[in-house]
Amino acid sequence: MKLMGSLTSPFVRKVRIVMAEKKLDYQFLLEDVWASDAILKINPLGKVPCLVMEGQDTIAGAVFDSRVIVEYVDTLSPVGKLIPERGRERTEVRTWEALADGVLDAGVLVRLEQTWPERTQAQRSQAWVDRQLGKVMAGLTAMNHGLGEKVWCSGNHFSLADIAVGCALGWLDFRFPDIDWRSENPHLARHFEKLSTRQSFVDTVPRLA
C-alpha cells in the first residue's frame, strides 16, 4: 500500500500512527497539495491523506478521508484493535475522533485565514478567526472534561480516540505554539505527555519537509 500525505498534516499523522500501531508495512509518499495537482489523479477532492491499494494507481483503487482510512486499516490486522466492533464502545471512540477532528478543522480554518497568500490583510476577518478559535477552545474543554482522571480517553485501553486527541494537540503545538492550552486543560496535558512517549508518536512528530 502507498500512503500519500505530508509531514505536517495531523490527519495524515493519525493514519501513520494507526499504521504503526497495527504494524503494517506501507510506502509513504510526500505530497504537497498546495504546490502540485498530482493528488487529483487519485483523489478528486485534492486532499491528503490518501491510501492507494497495492497495484492500483487510479481513483478506483484509492481510499481517502482519514476516518475512512483508519477504519479500513484497523481491519487489516488483529494486532492492537483500535476501534471497537460495535455498540456504545464503538460510538464513544468515534465520537472522540469526531471531536478531535473538529478541533483540527477549526484550527485549519484559522491558519488559512491568517496565512493564505491569496488574501490581503484587509480581507482577513478577525471575527472569523475568533469564532473558530472559540470552537477550538470549547473542544479542548470538552475533551479535558471527558478525559478527567481516566487512563485512556475511552474504555480501558489505548484506542483511536487517544490517537485522534494526541494528533490534535500535537498539531496545535506545531502551528499555534502561542496558545497555552495546557494551563486550562491539565488532564489533556497529562495525557498528551504520556502519548508523546509512544514510539508511533515520536516517529511522526509534525515537521516541515
UniProtKB/TrEMBL annotation:
Question: What positions does the domain GST N-terminal occupy?
Answer: 1-81
Q: Which SUPFAM superfamilies match?
A: GST C-terminal domain-like (SSF47616), Thioredoxin-like (SSF52833)
Q: Which Pfam families match?
A: GST_C_2 (PF13410), GST_N_2 (PF13409)
Q: Where are the transmembrane segments?
A: none
Name the Gene3D superfamilies for this protein: 1.20.1050.10, Glutaredoxin (3.40.30.10)
Q: What is this protein called?
A: Glutathione S-transferase N-terminal domain-containing protein
Q: Which CDD domains match?
A: GST_C_6
Taxonomically, the superkingdom here is Bacteria
**Domain annotation GST C-terminal: ranges:** 86-209
